[in-house]
Amino acid sequence: MQAVTTARVTEAIDFALVHGLLKRTPDGGLVHMPFALTPCPIARETAERLERLTGPFSHLAHSVSSNLPFLQEALGQVARTDQFTADLLKLAKASASTQTLQFQITRSDYFIQADPEHGTPRIRQVELNTISSSYPGAAAKLYALHRHLLAGTLQQAALLPNNPLEGIADGFERAFQIYGHGDAFVLMVVQPGEGNVFDQRLLELAIRERGIPVRRMTLEEIADQGELREGHLSVSGRIAAICYFRAGYTPDDFIPTEAFKGRELIENSSSISIPNAATQLAGTKKVQQVLADGAVLRRFCGDADAVAMEQTFARIYDLDEEVTTPGGGPQFAWKAAIESPREYVLKPQREGGGNNLYEEELVEKLTHASAEERKAYILMERIRPIPHLATVVSAGEAEEGTCVSEIGRFGVYLADESGELLNLDAGYLVRTKGHQVREGGVTAGFAYLNSLIAEDQTEAPN
Ligand code: ADP
Ligand code: MG
Fold it and tell me: Across all residues in the chain, what is the average pLDDT?
């Protein structure tokens, strides 16, 4: 990466600050979100294919979450060694929820990989997030920043429009109306000391603009101040119509023992939970691996959707299944990974970044893990995305270098017992990072927010 200093960088940072593209630093200070100055090029056709995948993946998450015996079967062995998965399964099974309305806000993440054989780039899914799908607010503001920077150039017209806030907030409005308690509110379940608080606030504001009150609480606060009244979750005498989780995806959130009580309270109430425990489990890496089998996938969707989704699947294995090695012989996946660690990513059942193991860490873990421990992990083919040049800006400093980009598509999905009420793609998130960086988090400082620009029109005007 090479340092860059220009007036354009200063202008971009000022715009970011003015529009709330901010994060909190660990010492309580404020800094702009890391972002790319140069949008990520993509073929229009690939961008359209990505958008069309959202509906099938949202529907899939809903179908899987409605099938508890399947979740139990897929996750039973994981739950033996992984307490967090075990607790969520227990919660999903024991849930006395009377809630018939299912509301999902998902984000399906992808890399675009070159395909020398067919010429057209291949879409590769990284994962489907069913809990705490972050950055709808920051992505919307970043698109506004890029529009501003490219004003008056041909490139502005080539930027792919993005405003995930609107579609998501509209989903909240629709669900809130169906829940039907005038004096209710939306409860945003948050972590104490959240760094990505402004992304959440931007969504809060968009919901409030629709006349719906929003309150932020931690799981511990909910355990302390919430109670069940006639099946509803009540806080200070008002009913939480919707509980939207921006916490609860990591076991760390449950270290205060009270916190799990907060989670239980929500699950056992009539609140529309984004997500409920079953939908959270439907987004685990183990379930992703089990669904990579076409026959299993087809239990949950029609053939056309299955074909479209399957085309995006990278190879993904249970560690004790047999794979074919480059030499042609069969071998257990975990042994193949030890032999060719650069070809794989080892993933535990965790969300939120920083948990995956690569190369030497992968070898170390797999060499010593017992058969039982191996069940808590899945093995995924390492995707090698198409690199592109980018200028990225972090903490006031700009640098230029070879990067790769991960593209997420937000899905808004509402269903009741009679079927689907809403199944929309709300927009996208792009996270650009140095091509050798393994993890992907923006708030954690690995990646930079970005927008998409149609490749056929990225040339600057003469
Ligand atoms: P998390 O739930 O922690 O976000 P992910 O599966 O999304 O877990 O992995 C975190 C990051 O690791 C991704 O954002 C991506 O940058 C990288 N990553 C994940 N899977 C792969 C893969 N198969 N190949 C290459 N990079 C990957
Ligand atoms: Mg991820």
Answer: 94
Between strands 272-274 and 214-217, the pairing is unpaired
Average pLDDT over residues 176-189: 94
What atom in ligand 1 is closest to the CA of residue 441? 14
* Cα–Cα distance measured from residue 452 to residue 429, given in angstroms and rounded to the nearest whole number: 9
Mean pLDDT of 384-411: 96
Model confidence pLDDT, tens digit, residues 300-322: 999 999 999 999 999 999 999 99
| Catalytic hit among 263, 285, 286, 374 | 285
Tell whether ligand 1 has an atom less than 6 A from the beta carbon of residue 353: yes
pLDDT in the model for residue 328: 80
The pLDDT of residue 98 is 63
**169: pLDDT confidence band, cut at 50, 70 and 90?**
very high
**Residue 331, ligand 1, Cβ within 6 A:** no
Q: Identify whether 347 is a catalytic site residue.
A: yes
Active site annotation includes 234: no
Sorting pLDDT into bands at 50, 70 and 90, what band is 82? very high
107 is catalytic: yes
Nearest to 455 by CA among 386, 383, 398: 386
State the closest ligand 1 atom to the C-alpha of 380, by its place in the atom list counted from 1.
23
- Residue 96 burial by Cβ neighbours in a 10 Å radius (0-12, 13-18, 19+): exposed
Atom of ligand 1 minimally distant from the CA of 381: 23
Ligand 1 centroid to residue 124 C-alpha, Å: 11
- Asked whether 359 lines ligand 1 (CB < 6 A), one says no
Is 196 assigned a catalytic role?
no
